[in-house]
Design brief:
Chain B: Its main location: nucleus. The complex is a heterodimer of chains A (450) and B (590). With 450 residues, chain A is of the alpha+beta class. Chain A contains five helices and 30 strands. In chain A, helix 2 crosses helix 3. Chain A starts with a strand and ends with a strand. Chain B is α+β, with helices and mostly antiparallel strands and 590 residues long. Chain B contains twelve helices and 31 strands. A four-stranded antiparallel sheet of chain B has the order 2-29-28-27. Chain B has a four-stranded antiparallel sheet with strand order 3-4-5-6, with no helix packed on it. The chains are: A alpha+beta (450), B alpha+beta (590).
Chain lengths: 450, 590
């Protein structure tokens, strides 16, 4: 006897049992059943990278209203949509970024430019200007529904023009930067204390309170310095002198010891304040001075705006290849912030507009279904897996730059290269061991003082 | 007192660990206990990358290794979920033979659904060629006299039937049953499911065979002019045409796992083609006389190939190593048509019979030229048998012949478990549409076709032609000076340099290591010495730094003469005994 069995597929097992049921699927994971699986996956990765660039439309909208350049932007803690901007014309506008309309317009809040803005407890706004005044504004609507008048709640007169202001995280204290650092109490009309580094004669250009160690204050000055203060001791603790001056600073929201400096020498630096002898990372891509910087609330990313009319979004710890945003009409970017949900970036520029950008250029705004979400995640993982492939990597890395920025970058590279070659030749013609190459990170800090 | 304690070793910390090997209980049990087999780790644990210093990289690699190991085990688990079992025929005693079982018995023994696979179609219009879709659901047939039909072979519904009134040599489905291409008398034509002529591909002149590469969306044809042409069916452009230079060709098949095309030619040559090479990737002389049929084994991913010659010989080749066939035999009845099934069963149709051979026997090396043990045989009286096709995912073999088609049951030849994402015999309209779009999105570029499909995504092999000229830097081959390049390639003429060096050494005299020290008279005296001889002059003129066979031959000749002179001189001086001539000298190689 020969045992015979012939393969047969019962249609009942492969067809839906009732109309409307999903069609049953069967799987066979034998690699022979899936020819070219790798090549097909690569094609999918390539398509994913292309689609990512295809849908990269980061510009969301712009908010007008200022007559002159926007100097300063600040977000309201605990609010996703309230942002205040101050301009060179002395006006302040409080924006609702969800609806893209102004909540309050304070024309002529200061004489000359508004140099600093910060929110205080209870829907109040502090502003300082070059007219040597600090003004406290009430933003809350009055009982009759209309917004309160254009007169400030309080005016704190100072002796010299102010450059920056920042509020304490929890207490009713704020600090201003002029030729000294002054600590103010909201209830008192004069400064509580003045702090300076003993030997300094510089102008303080910006200052920020640390977000977790709330009595620690960092400032940058015109003397190329970054200084740390403690308001409990009322003293300047430590100071670093760098090659070139910084234009902006921001404390990391998740790593309390990390501070980010936006420098005039086209670079950004993160410092660990426990170790100030060298920056922990240098971020190089701008081709002109970096004017502003701000951390994402996740602490994994930060945004910077530069004199080169570009906005760049960096990943913490990745010193090159940031995301670049630019438009034809955007001028020098003087202020840039991340919103509190880490999804948007706001920039204020010389053309008087506040622009809203997506933090992820190709992110879809609006409702994303679960299936769509799964597809997006699959595409992301494909891109990550195939990023070493030359074509896929090239597509996801390359960014279009405006011609002047591109040319400036090329010129900068040429100059740096020439400098490096000259250095090498000089080293070659000096006695061996006399002129050692310096690590890149050690080049930027001139002195550490305490 | 303390010393006494110390000597007695009484002061001993209590918590000190005891030597585990001294644990008597444990050592007594240990040889008799072990983890049950089911609980033992089946594969060795994934590697820990302890030697890598970078913690980020190390954790990433470890994660990847764990992921890979888990995937492997999950794939193994997934096999438990297979719904269908293999078919097969098994004999119960030594004396029985499977080939004695006829088709009627098999059809009786098979289930009701499977028995429907055994059919005979009597059709007019000459020998038929057939082709299944990838899911095995639809069948296209083309008769030589112009009868073309496509139909659903599960339900038996006819999609279209055409009487084209001209010679049709081959037919193939495109990506699915909605389009098919026919190789007609003059050109290739593409029809849709309803038989509407969509395209006339005028660049494919007098085609004889067609193949469609589904993952690359390429329609390949070869014709009487001997041109292999690739047409991209998604963009419509003629991708490339290769001139085979081997005359009319009537044998074309594809390797489904590499998308390489196999051509058999009139002079017995077999050639493998990819679109990106203007010459065959592999060319071998397979048969004496024309090659009439080639088939690639899908069960091993294209490792084995079978070819048949017009003289009736059938050869099985191992495609990793083209040196001679694994097995060869001659089939009775002349030209054989071949086809491998998904499970590695080889069908050979010659004369008036179809024979099926099973896998391990045909792939094992066997020196004698005798047919392998037969698995199944079936006579078909309508000669010639012009095509054999296994139906995917069933045990059905369809033979096209002079009087129509016959489909046979070959138990155990089909892959029982299909994958719905690749090819589903039960797929419906929406699934077909979705698969069409997905297939277009995942279309692989034709320049990715190569003999080894796994090169995609693997690391580029280190280039062999770089060299460390200095100890530290590797300079790319292209930027090396010419002499270095020759040295790397093994073409540099090193002998010349050595000879020159020796020549200088022979001159002797004080301080001629570097030419500066020689006095002027000496230099003039030596200037032409020994260089005027025609042979030496030839060698000097030939100094191209490249090994030249004539120059080498002359140089060896000179060496030999020099050696002979040296020996003669030595004999003269009495340092060496002269060799006595012997009778065996006539056999010496000079």
């Amino acid at each position: 006897m020969v045992k015979i069995s012939v393969l047969q597929h019962a249609p009942s097992t492969h067809l839906p049992s009732r109309p409307g049921d999903p069609v049953p699927t069967s799987r066979n994971l034998d690699p022979l059943m899936h020819p070219f699986s790798r090549a097909r996956e690569r094609t999918r990765a390539l398509n994913a990278a292309k689609m990512d660039r295809l849908f990269a439309k980061p510009f969301v909208g712009s908010m007008e209203g200022h007559i002159d350049a926007v100097e300063v932007l600040c977000k309201k803690p605990g609010s996703l949509n309230t942002v205040a901007s101050g301009s060179w014309d002395g006006g302040i506008i409080v924006h609702d970024i969800a609806q893209r309309r102004p909540l309050r317009q304070l024309q002529g809040a200061h004489k000359g430019k508004v140099s600093g803005l910060c929110f205080a407890e209870g829907d109040r706004l502090l502003s300082c200007g070059v007219d040597s005044n600090i003004k406290l504004w009430n933003l809350a609507a009055d009982g009759d529904g209309s917004t309160s008048s254009e007169t400030p709640l309080n005016i704190f007169p100072g002796k010299s023009p102010f450059n920056s202001i920042d509020h304490h995280r929890s207490g009713p204290i704020f600090a201003t930067a002029s030729n000294t650092v002054q600590i103010w109490d909201e209830t008192k009309s004069a400064a509580v204390s003045n702090i300076t580094f003993p030997t300094s004669t510089e102008t303080i250009t910006a200052l920020r309170f640390n977000l977790s160690e709330t009595s620690v204050l960092g400032s940058i000055g015109s003397d190329r310095t970054f200084t740390l203060y403690d308001i409990r001791t009322g003293k300047a603790e430590r100071r670093v002198v760098m090659q070139m001056r910084s234009n902006s600073l921001a404390w990391s929201p998740t790593f309390p010891t990390t501070v980010l400096l936006a420098s005039e020498d086209h670079n950004l630096y993160t410092f660990d304040v426990r170790q100030l002898s060298a920056p922990s990372q240098i971020y190089k891509a701008h081709v002109a001075a970096v004017m502003s910087c701000d951390w994402s609330p996740t602490g994994l990313e930060f945004v910077s705006g530069g004199w080169d009319r570009t906005v760049r979004i960096w990943k913490e710890g990745h010193g090159h290849g940031p995301e670049v945003y630019h438009t034809k009409r955007m001028q020098r970017v003087s202020s840039s912030i991340f919103t509190n949900d880490a999804r948007f970036v706001l920039t204020g520029s010389d053309d008087g507009n506040v622009r809203i950008w997506k933090a992820k250029a190709s992110e879809k705004l609006g409702i994303v279904t679960a299936r769509e979400r799964a597809a997006i995640e699959y595409r992301d993982s494909l891109k990550d897996r195939w990023k070493w492939d030359s074509e896929v990597g090239k597509i996801s890395r390359s960014r279009h730059l405006p011609k002047p920025v591109y040319q400036a970058g090329k010129l900068k590279n040429t100059m740096l290269d020439a400098r490096r070659v000259k250095e090498e030749r000089r080293r070659k013609h000096t006695r061996a061991g006399e002129n050692k190459p310096k690590a890149e990170r050690k080049k930027y800090v001139l002195a550490e003082q305490s | 007192m303390d010393s006494l304690f110390a000597r007695a070793d009484a002061i001993r910390p209590v918590h000190k660990k005891r030597n585990p090997s001294s644990d008597r209980t444990l050592s007594s049990i240990a040889p008799h206990t072990a983890l049950p087999k089911s609980l033992r780790p089946s594969s060795p644990s994934p590697p820990t990358h302890k030697h890598i210093k970078n913690l980020n990289l190390r954790s990433q690699l470890t994660r990847q290794a764990h992921h890979a190991a888990r995937t492997k085990s999950l794939i193994h688990d997934a096999e438990l979920l297979f719904k269908e079992d293999n078919g097969g025929m098994h004999v119960e005693s030594q004396m029985e033979r499977t080939w004695r079982v006829g088709q009627r018995d098999i059809a009786q023994g098979a289930g009701e659904e499977a028995a429907k696979g055994r059919q005979e179609w009597i059709l007019d219009g000459g020998p038929y060629r057939t082709r299944y879709t990838r899911n095995g659901r639809h069948l296209a047939i083309a008769g030589k006299a112009g009868h073309v039909a496509t139909f659903d072979c599960k339900t038996g519904t006819l999609h279209t039937e055409l009487q084209l009134q001209e010679t049709c040599r081959d037919i193939t489905f495109l990506h699915d049953q909605s389009h098919f291409a026919v190789a007609q008398k003059k050109y290739v034509f593409i029809y849709d499911r309803d038989g509407v002529e969509l395209h006339r591909l005028k660049s494919h002149v007098e085609p004889t065979r067609l193949e469609f590469l589904p993952y690359h969306w390429l329609l390949a044809s070869v014709g009487n002019a001997g041109y292999l042409k690739y047409q991209d069916t998604s963009t419509g452009q003629l991708l490339v045409e290769h001139r085979t230079k081997l005359g009319p060709c009537t044998t074309l098949t594809q390797n489904a796992h590499t998308a390489v095309l196999y051509l058999g030619h009139q002079n017995g040559t077999l050639s493998l083609w990819t679109p990106n090479l203007p010459q065959p990737a592999v060319q071998l002389l397979a048969h004496l006389g024309p090659v009439v049929s080639v088939s690639v084994d899908p069960s091993t991913g294209g490792r084995y190939m079978a070819s048949a010659g017009a003289d009736g010989s059938v050869k099985v080749w191992d495609c990793r190593n083209w040196k001679g066939s694994v097995r060869e035999w001659s089939a009775r009845g002349g030209k054989a048509q071949l086809e491998w099934s998904a499970k590695g069963c080889l069908a050979v149709a010659t004369g008036g019979t179809v024979n099926a051979y099973n896998s391990p026997a045909i792939k094992s090396t066997f020196a004698a030229h005798v047919p392998p043990p037969l698995f199944l045989t079936h006579p078909i009286p309508h000669r010639p048998l012009t095509s054999v096709r296994f139906c995917p995912f069933t045990d059905v073999l369809t033979v096209g012949h002079e009087r129509g088609l016959s489909s046979l049951l070959v138990p155990g030849s089909g892959e029982p478990n299909f994958d719905s994402s690749e090819a589903d015999p039960f797929e419906r309209k929406t699934a077909r549409r979705e698969r069409e779009v997905k297939g277009l999105l995942d279309k692989i570029q034709p320049d990715m076709i190569s003999l080894d499909p796994e090169f995609v995504g693997s690391l580029a092999p280190p280039t062999k032609l770089t060299t460390a000229v200095h100890d530290t830097v590797d300079i790319p081959f292209a930027r090396l000076p010419r002499l270095e390049r020759l040295r790397v390639q093994g073409l540099a003429d090193e002998t010349e340099v050595a000879e020159d060096g020796r020549g200088r050494g022979d001159d002797g005299g004080a301080g001629d290591d570097n030419g500066k020290k020689q006095s002027r008279e000496e230099r003039e005296k030596r200037k032409m010495r020994g260089k005027g001889k025609s042979m030496k002059r030839y060698l000097r003129k030939q100094r191209k730094n490249v090994i030249d066979p004539t120059a080498v031959a002359i140089r060896t000749k000179l060496e030999k003469q020099k050696e002979e002179k040296r020996v003669a001189k030595a004999i003269e001086k009495g340092e060496v005994e002269p060799r006595k001539p012997s009778a065996l000298d006539r056999f010496r190689r000079s």
